[in-house]
């Protein structure tokens, strides 16, 4: 069986048609075409029951599709920088702070200081300590 290459027009804008994206789409299409060609060849050989063969190939192709979808989603993830404690605390009003931590800011800072004195700086790992270790 001869596999002919098909020209596929993409609906994505040209600025999004990065060469690596185009290559990966071409590879996926080629894999699909090869799978289809293999399916036809195997049917022609009639070594297996047609229904069993169809179920096997369909499940294989579904797994490949799910794998490709997950791979694409993983590539589109955005790295988010964790918000520092100082930035988080400064965005809270006194009322919000009290609702979050059930104590005032002064009481919270005093509690943190006491814990740090008892367990040690290395165990408590305040934001200032972590920044100094970098």
Question: If you had to describe this structure to a student in words, what would you say it looks like?
Answer:
- By secondary structure, this protein is mostly helical.
- It contains 7 helices and no strands.
- It is elongated and about 80 Å long.
- Residues 1-8 have low confidence and may be disordered.
The overall pLDDT, averaged over residues, is: 77
User: What's the helix count?
Assistant: 7
Tell me what portion of residues adopts beta-strand conformation.
under 5%
**Helicity range:** 55-70%
Quick overview:
The chain is mainly alpha-helical and 134 residues long. Helices cover 69% and strands 0% of the residues.
What features would you highlight for this structure?
134 residues; disordered N terminus; mainly alpha; 7 helices; 69% helix; single chain
Task: List the SSEs and their pairings.
Elements (H helix, E strand, L loop, with lengths): L18 H27 L4 H26 L9 H7 L2 H8 L3 H15 L1 H4 L2 H6 L2
Helix pairs in contact: 1-2
